[in-house]
Amino acid sequence: VIGAGGGDGALYKPMGLAVAQAGNLYVSDITAKIIQVYDREGKHLRALTGKELWSRPSGIDVSPDGTTLFVVDTGGVASDTHRVVVLDALTGDLQQTIGKRGTGAGELNLPRDVRLGPDGLLYVTDGGNFRIVVFDQSGEFVRAWGKPGRRLGQFSRPKGIAVDTDGNIYAT
């Protein structure tokens, strides 16, 4: 069990997690608006605060080398911060933001999760637009697919996403 009992490393409402190849665990906490970092034994290493960077951090992924974090800011009804925040995984320094609120190409509405694929692309669930949006790591829009519905190629507010080593994409 990690994050229980208060103090350093406490978790209140964890929403996303990612594990770097070296074994460090990154957990986004939507209530505390923080990213907690633990080693492979569960020892708290550090917190990456971001109250000035995001309104509702949810999904998270880390680059294979463990140097870059991709944090989804889900935003909200009254917020325009519907985007992916890219941070230095060691310092928490802001590197860039990807996307903005909207319905067009490269825009997001209530994004929830992000995965870095083996092709180096970022796959983002765009729940409010009922689709998956793909960006390169410089933040350029690559493509999107999906529409509202319950049939093949349609989504009902996609939330979680995974990409396997063969590039197959799984969305919930």
Question: Can you give a write-up of this model?
Answer:
The protein has 172 residues and is an all-beta fold. Helix content is 0%, strand content 47%. The chain is built from no helices and 18 strands. The strands form six sheets. Strands 1-2-3-4 form a four-stranded antiparallel sheet, with no helix packed on it. Strands 5-6-7-8 form a four-stranded antiparallel sheet, with no helix packed on it. It has a four-stranded antiparallel sheet with strand order 11-12-13-14, with no helix packed on it. The two termini are 26 Å apart. The mean pLDDT is 94.
Features:
four-stranded antiparallel beta sheet; mainly beta; 172 residues; single chain
What oligomeric arrangement do these chains adopt? single chain
Number of helices: 0
> How many DSSP-defined strands?
18
Give me the strand/helix succession. EEEEEEEEEEEEEEEEEE
Strand content bin: over 45%
> Termini, distance in Å?
26 Å
Percentage of residues assigned to helices: under 10%
> In terms of per-residue confidence, which ranges show pLDDT below 50 for 5 or more consecutive residues?
none
Question: What general outline do the C-alpha atoms trace?
Answer: globular
Give the class from helix and strand content and strand pairing. Answer: mainly beta
**Overall pLDDT metric:** 94
Q: Main β-sheet, in a few words?
A: 4 strands, antiparallel
Radius of gyration: 15 Å
Q: Biggest sheet: strands side by side, in what order?
A: 1-2-3-4
